[in-house]
Structures are given as C-alpha cells and as structure tokens.
Design a protein that fits this description.
Layout: H1 4-40, H2 45-75
Helix pairs in contact: 1-2
C-alpha cells in the first residue's frame, strides 16, 4: 500500500510544475503576439499593450489558483481522513 503523504507530495509537485509551465507558455504566446502586432501596426501599440497586460494577468491567475489548491492539499488533506 502506498503512503498517502508521499502521493500528496507528488501531486503537489506535478500541479505546481504544470501550472508554472503553462503560465510561462501562455505569457510567451501573448507577448510574442504583442510584438508581432506592434511591428505590423505601431500606431495601435497602446491598445495592444493594454490587451496584452489583461491577457497576461488572466494567464497568471492560473498558478495562483493552483497554489490555493496545493495549500488545501497540504493543510486540509481530504485523503488523510
């Protein structure tokens, strides 16, 4: 039988790693498209920059939500009861 604490630690590591990697990938796609848009239409850079900041903020909320789930797994682990 496997140890539930060890499985929880493995789940925490996987969750955080995937959340960070997905956020980095999403931010890089958004900012890459921002650079592409600014080079194509420099006069629209203010609107594009605002939209890119909003998009990056939404993408960065994912690791924060995952961190909350991880904290729940650490301090109120439903698998240990």
């Amino acid at each position: 039988m496997t140890n539930p604490i060890a499985l929880t630690i493995v789940a925490i590591i996987i969750l955080e790693a995937l959340a960070v990697l997905c956020a980095v990938y999403g931010d890089s796609k958004i900012l890459g498209k921002l650079m592409d848009g600014v080079t194509r239409q420099p006069e629209a850079k203010d609107a594009l920059f605002t939209n890119a900041l909003i998009g990056c903020g939404l993408v960065e909320s994912m690791p924060i939500i995952v961190t909350v789930v991880v904290l729940i797994l650490i301090f109120a682990n439903p698998f240990l009861k």
